[in-house]
Automatic annotation (TrEMBL):
It is an enzyme of class 6 (ligase). The lineage of its organism: Bacteria, Pseudomonadati, Pseudomonadota, Gammaproteobacteria, Pseudomonadales. It holds the Pfam family Mur_ligase_C. Its cofactor is Mg(2+). The keyword DNA repair does not apply. Residues 313-435 form the Mur ligase C-terminal domain. It comes from Pseudomonas helleri. Pathway: Cell wall biogenesis; peptidoglycan recycling. This is UDP-N-acetylmuramate--L-alanyl-gamma-D-glutamyl-meso-2,6-diaminoheptandioate ligase.
């Protein structure tokens, strides 16, 4: 079957393409912006990519067109599909029908940490010999691919609350019907499609409604929004993590790189890994609870975590030049920025820390999180913000109240000049964006050389 994917370079749609290829389909696709890591992964899989949405790519007609949620009416390829009556489907629906049906789905949902936790869980199951399938919105370094079918009933999926397509406004995760569900946390996000936090809570409750009574829901004790979701009705056993929960961590180092794991008060083992930050400790506890639900004893799961290598673009060290370390990180919400910088600060101590941040997500472009930005960066010594001409709101005015020395730049060249002027050997530079940021990481490294 010939499957053509519109919006193929999104992390979800690119992973879907990999699964479709593995199922034996002829897969092609297109996107407005073709950039790594997804573009390189797809090309390595032999998947033909087209830049842009010229309808000519749909002639001869594919057997089915999978339409990504970034596309809307008015897109020339979408209009062609509708006018010609070509069969089309959303990505989550295709995944549910062709991959997830009949499998034990382990879904990881939440505002933050979905990609990292999904990667941890897939790796822990792999380490335990369970050969799971997975679809993850990033590239886990333990696997070097973002998706695979797997050889067993178990399938780990990053379960996003964003909508499915222009013709299907349900959250993606409602399609997945998990048996094991991790709800990591819940804050207001996706201001382009949700009016407020209660609207997102309702979608999370739609997910909870689909989990069988023989399944398991895992969530931290410290998230009031998730507590409200559960109180709307839950027909499934629940395990909790964190303070007062069944799964707890006893930190052995402030940066979260070493901690004991306790289940119902009993020590299960010690995690010693390369990850940092309280958020990753929380991710680990949820992973251990989910792995235990499918039969992985905690001691074996902990051994898996100790061999976990994180995810590309999640505090990924991408260069070290003259003693200056450059990291690539996906953080784009104030909470994620704050927790990521806090974890790194505890890891590097008093070393100079510069954050370079692009407010690029749809919510950021709408200014939904701007009030949280000035104080999200308190652990940095200097912050460089990127304000392109089309941002649409006053970033400089917003971050002027930040307690951290701040520079707002309108070009990559200005950012590079600012960072070069500030770094000394021993400085750590974190570049934060949920997009390609114009290849800034490589350009900065070259400039420092």
């Amino acid at each position: 079957m010939h499957i053509h994917i519109l919006g193929i370079c999104g992390t979800f749609m690119g992973s879907l393409a990999v699964l479709a290829k593995e199922l034996g389909h002829h897969v092609t696709g297109s996107d407005a912006n073709v950039y790594p890591p997804m573009s390189t992964q797809l090309q390595a899989q032999g998947i033909e990519l087209t830049q842009g949405y010229d309808p000519a790519q749909l002639d001869p007609a594919p057997d089915v067109v999978v339409i990504g949620n970034a596309l809307s009416r008015g897109n020339p390829a979408v209009e062609y599909v509708l006018n010609k009556g070509l069969p089309y489907v959303s990505g989550p629906q295709w995944l549910a029908d062709h991959v997830l049906q009949g499998r034990w789905v382990l879904a990881v949902a939440g505002t933050h940490g979905k990609t990292t936790t999904s990667s941890m869980l897939a790796w822990v199951l792999e380490h335990a010999g369970m050969a799971p399938g997975f679809l993850i919105g990033g590239v886990p370094q333990n696997f070097a691919v973002s998706a695979r079918l797997g050889d067993t009933p178990f399938f780990v999926v990053e379960a996003d609350e964003y909508d499915s397509a222009f013709f299907d406004k349900r959250s993606k995760f409602v399609h997945y019907r998990p048996r094991t569900a991790i709800l990591n946390n819940l804050e207001f996000d996706h201001a382009d499609i949700f009016p407020d936090l209660p609207a997102i809570e309702r979608q999370f409750h739609h997910l909870v409604r689909t989990i069988p009574s023989e399944g398991l829901v895992i969530h931290p004790t410290t998230e009031p929004a998730l507590q409200r979701v559960i109180e709307m009705g839950c027909w499934t056993p629940v395990q909790t993590t964190g303070e007062g929960g069944q799964w707890q961590a006893r930190l052995l180092s402030d940066d979260g790189s070493r901690f004991d794991v306790l289940f119902e008060g009993s020590v299960q083992g010690t995690v010693e890994w390369d990850m940092t930050g309280q958020h990753n400790v929380a991710n680990a506890l949820a992973t251990l609870a989910a792995a235990r639900h499918v039969g992985v004893v905690p001691s074996l799961a902990i051994a898996g975590l100790n061999a976990f290598k994180s995810v590309k673009r999640r505090m990924e060290k991408v260069a070290e030049v003259h003693g200056i370390t450059i990291y690539d990180d996906f953080a784009h919400h104030p909470t994620a920025i704050a927790t990521t910088l806090d974890g790194l600060r505890k890891h590097i101590g008093d070393a100079p820390l510069i954050a370079v941040i692009e407010p690029r997500s749809n919510s950021m472009k709408l200014g939904a999180h701007r009030d949280g930005l000035p104080h999200s960066v308190v652990q940095a010594d200097h912050v460089v913000w990127y304000a392109p001409a089309n941002l649409g709101w006053d970033l400089a005015g917003t971050v002027a109240s930040s307690p951290v020395p701040t520079k707002v730049c309108d070009s990559l060249e200005a950012i590079i000049a600012e960072v070069k002027a500030k770094v000394t050997p021993g400085t750590h530079v974190v570049i934060m964006s949920n997009g390609g940021f114009g290849g800034l990481h490589g350009k900065l490294a070259d400039a420092l050389r």
